[in-house]
Amino acid sequence: MKRALAILAACSLFGFAGLAQFSGSWSATIDVLTPELVSSTLTLTYTISGWTLTSVSGFDNSGFADQDFSVSGTLGAISLDGSMAFNVSKAEYESSSISASLDFAGVAFDFSVEHVAYPYKDPWPCEQTKSYMVYTLGASADNFGLTAKFEDCCTGIVFKDIKVTLSDLSLCCGLTYGVEFYFTKAGFDYITFSISPLFEICCGISLGIDVKFTEDGKAVTPTFSWEGLTGCVTVWGDVTTATDDDALINGLEIYGYKIYCELAECNYLEIVTAFDPSIVNSYIADDFEGSEYQYIKLGFCGPACCGGSWTVDAIAFFQETGSLFGLTRFGVDASVPVIGDTLVLNIAFTSKTTLTIGWTFTF
Q1: Chain segment 333-351, per-residue pLDDT in tens
Q2: Of 14, 76, 116, 299, which residue has the fewest beta carbons closer than 10 angstroms?
Q3: What's the whole-model pTM score?
C-alpha cells in the first residue's frame, strides 16, 4: 500500500510540473450511517505533444482496489490507443491492449492486440494456460466490414475466425439486403442473406426475411419488428409468432410503458409500469426488484448560488400487495454545485436505511 501511494504521489507531482496540460477529477461516495467508503475514483490526465496519458485509481472500503492506465495519440496518420489494468487489492495484473487505426482511400483499417491474465475473461478460452492473447484485424467502408481474429494460448498464434459483412446493398423496388459470412478455424460456419424490412404490415410492424445457409442445411426465417411508441408515452413491446409457425403473427406482446411529463425546464414527472420487469429493466436506469412493477419519479432543478444548477430526484417503487399502499422502497438523490462545476456535492438517501454523501472535484 505504501509503495502504491508513493507511485500515486509521484504521478501527481509529475502532473503539477506541467499544470497547463494537467487535469483530472476526484469523486467519492461515503455511507454516513455505516460509516464506510462506498467508492472513490481519482482520475489524472496529462496531455503533452498531442498525446494523452490517463490514470484512473479506484478505492473502496478496503483501500486501494484497482488501477487503470491508458494512452492515446497519433503518429502521422495513424491513431494509437493503449491500456493496462491491475487488480491492486489482489496485487494482480489483469489485462493490457494496444490498437492502431488508419483511414486510407475511404477505407478504415484497424489492428489490435489484447492480452488477458486468468481469470479476468469469462469464459476462459484456454484449457491449460493462464495467459491469453487475441489479435484482431479489421477493415470497413461504407457498406463493407471485415474482421479477422487470431488467438494464442501460449502454444503459438492460430487462426480463430473471420467475419465479412455487406449492408444496404440495392436489390430492386427500393429494397436493400445484407450479407454476413462467418468462417472459423473449424471451417465454413454460415452465410446469411437478410432483407429487413421487406415491407410494413401495419401499425409500425415490419416484416423481414433471413436466409441462412450452413454446411448441412438451409433455413428461411421471417423476422418481425416493431419500433414501439415514443414521445410523452413510450411503449415497449415486440411482435410474437406462433410456436409452431414462425411465419404466423400471434399478436403483440407489451412489456411495459413510460409516461413522461415535463412540468417546467428540467422539472418532470415520470411513471413507469412494467408487465415484464425483467425486460423493462433493460430500458430504464432505475431497476425493479422482487415483485415491484411500477415506480413514480419526480425531478426538480434550479440555479445554484455559486454557479451551475442543483438537482433533486425522488423515486418511489410499488408492488401489487404485501405492503402499505403497495410501497416497497423510496429514495432521494440530490446534487448541489458548491463551486460551479469544479466541486459538486452529491447526497443520496433510500428507505433501505442508507444515507450516502459524495462529491466530485474537477481540476
Answers
A1: 999 888 877 788 888 888 8
A2: 76
A3: 0.71
